[in-house]
Amino acid sequence: MWHWLPSVLPRKMPLFFRLLVLVGLAHCLLIVSYALLSRSQPLTIHVSRAVFQDNRIIRVLPFVRNTGQLNRVFEKVGKSHTSRSGFSAIKSQKSKLRIRRSEKGKTAVEGGAKKSEKKIKNVHGVVQELPKIKIKKSKKGQKGSVNEAVKPVEKPVAPPPVILPQKGPKQSVDEKKDKLIPAELVAPKKSVVQQESVAEVQSVQNTGELENVIEESSLSPELMDIEMAGSDDGSPIVLGQQEFELLQTYRAIYEEMNQQWHPPVGLRPAKQCIILVTINEKGCVSQVCAEQPSGVLAYDLAARMAVNRANFPKGVWNQQVRLHF
Amino acid sequence: MMEFGVKKRVCLLVTCFFISVLADAPLEFAVTAQSFQPLKLLCAVDETSGADCQRTAQQCAQLLTASGQFLATVERMPLPTTKQPMADLVQRGYAVALFFSGDEREIYWRLYDTFDVQLLVGKKNNIDASAGYELAVTIAGHVFQLLTNQDNSFTSLVAACKRLPGRGRTQAALCLIHPFFDLGVFVPVVLVAKGNNFGPRWHSTRSVIFYSQHMPTNIRLMSVDSQKISRVITNFDGQNMTPAIASDGRVVLALSTKKGMQLFNYHFDESSKKGVFAQLTHEKGDCISPSFLNSDEVVFCHIDERNVPRIGVLEISTQKTRWLVSGALCPMASPTGREFVYCKRINGFLQVFIYTISSQKMRQLTRDAKGHKDECSWSPCGNYIVCSVELGRGSRIAVVCVNDGALRFITPANEYWSSPCWSPALYLPFSFGKNQ
């Protein structure tokens, strides 16, 4: 040990080594504490049945992983729909959401979800779904650049039509909604597969539009006020790619469990039955482990039976899923 | 070398620690049921076992299915000796299996969790030919309690009156029926065959039933015990009806006065060796159908001079009444005393409602327009309500599930059954299954 060290150290050297070790330990401590403290808290998202059956519009932003609206939307729905039937999903996520930089690193949107949300709403309250078309990036600050960017939407390349941003500040929110929300974009009417394909379409390298839209927004403060006021009820849900994929998984599991989970009537378990399901790479349930029995045997058995019958979506294949019944 | 080994271990530990800290947690979902379904249960009878075994399995299946929480089916099959048959049962949707085997003397029954192929409970019972349904009731009760963690009412009975066919005066016999067996399986036990009897009420602790009997001049209050011996309790002028007995022995009953029917408190005076009746209500109209919520509070029905009913709760100590529901009648307190069931007319038909005392909320239990639901009574477990359903000239007894309002008839359509009252105790109150 320590072969390379001279056998006799100068007088100051041991002190130096001790200091070095101390600093090293302090660093280790810092790293460990950072790892512990910065670990994201489980984000609880309550998803009631209405999320998927209500006429809620879900828009997916290209080049954006998270917008932070997923949680907000679920919370809102959870508050407005106080039905006894509900479904909630909990996912470990980092609280700090980021919008991906553009390829050239010029996109101004970066940082917290609130910031990105605000800027997106500022434009027209609704974020466009962008088709798979290459668009020439227009110059910053140029008026009319948004409209120019939207023009290619008319081409029949992608199924969802793109919505033109309305500028008129005197327009009522409802009127705008009527104009801005096409029926095709209403999320519940699409199948999971269709929505996934839409998400794929949107993952195109097109960064200029977003940038221009943001630049445009700063020019119309009146519109911003209107949109902010109207955004609380019925405004479209703007999601990032990652959130959208997560939503698809939630939806698939939600629908599957809705079909399978039918406990016997009148059972009153004192606590939740928590089941940890291991799904193999083929999508089959390979292991079912009751982490916490509810205390009512029939309830636990019914839960296990539901899990056993369920076909889990691809998003959770080769993963573990913890189900709270 | 030792030092290096220690370091290696420390490094491994640190790595494991970091992996455990930074590893992704599994996805978590909380699922709430949108609908309910009974749990599938297989009653498997060994191929080599006798007829008694088969009969007991069938009776168990009938009891468990009638509870509404299980869907039990009976199959004759060889008892599994490996795990594969159990896996097949899981594939067929059976989460639990109840295996019966035995001979003419004994029955072995074992309840298995088919997922883990784990024995949950198993017992050996002697077959007593004179026992009738007791064995099935015992096994089903055991299984039910283990699986649901709830009390069951398999051992209880329902007292009801069956109108006897014949000309002249109406005759109604006081009978006992089983709330979970069909009349074909459990033949009704006739307690009082003579007279026009109605309004039976069970004693809270003893195997005694009080009932009212129509007489030429009045309606008298009678009692019948497990030996089928009838006694006259009160024979005042007018009507003597519907006594309610609290768990501490306190008795309240409805008696006729000049102002109509009123509630009276009955107690036996030790010094004079006489029963004393103290009037509790002084309302205009009739106060009927008392039922104890607790030892000091009685829920009852008051029908005013305009024939409009309402339900109130009388505090016996202060003799103050608070009115809860108007337009409702026939209240009956639940075994816990936290709620009561009553009937109210909705769209021309009497329907069953449940009123929760603490929250002062009412819940409509039945909704179908297939007859008047009347004369409700709770099961001892609190999960079911028995009532009479009157449609046209017929009247049947039905059991309503409190949880989902599902209605199941227990008497045939071609007979007239009325005034059902569920026994309060969780034991076999009378000579169970034995008929004259």
Plain-language structure description:
The complex is a heterodimer of chains A (325) and B (436). With 325 residues, chain A is α+β, with helices and mostly antiparallel strands. In chain A, 41% of the residues lie in helices and 12% in strands. Chain A has helices at 13-37, 49-53, 69-80, 113-124, 145-150, 173-180, 192-202, 208-217, 221-230, 241-260, 297-309, and strands at residues 42-48, 58-60, 86-92, 237-239, 274-279, 285-292, 319-324. In chain A, a hairpin with a 5-residue loop joins strand 5 and strand 6. In chain A, 35% of the residues are buried. By secondary structure, chain B is mainly beta. In chain B, 14% of the residues lie in helices and 47% in strands. Chain B is globular and about 100 Å long. Mean pLDDT of chain B is 86; it is low at 432-436. The chains are: A alpha+beta (325), B mainly beta (436). The interface between A and B is large, with 51 and 42 residues.
Low-confidence segments of chain A, given as residue ranges, are 40-54, 76-232
Biggest sheet descriptor of chain A: 3 strands, antiparallel
Q: Please state the average pLDDT score of chain B.
A: 86
Rough outline of chain A: elongated
Beta-strand portion of chain A reads 5-15%
Give the C-alpha Rg of chain A. Answer: 25 Å
Helix content of chain B: 10-25%
Strand order of the largest sheet of chain A: 6-5-7
Number of strands of chain A: 7
Identify the strand order in the major beta sheet of chain B. 3-2-4-5-6
**Major beta-sheet overview of chain B:** 5 strands, mixed
Number of strands of chain B: 30
Largest interface: A-B, 51 and 42 residues
Principal-axes shape call of chain B = globular
Helical/strand content category of chain A: alpha+beta
Number of helices of chain B: 4
- Helix count, DSSP H or I runs of 4 or more residues of chain A: 11
The residue-averaged pLDDT of chain A reads 57
The protein's oligomeric status is heterodimer
- The end-to-end distance of chain B, rounded to whole angstroms, is 92 Å
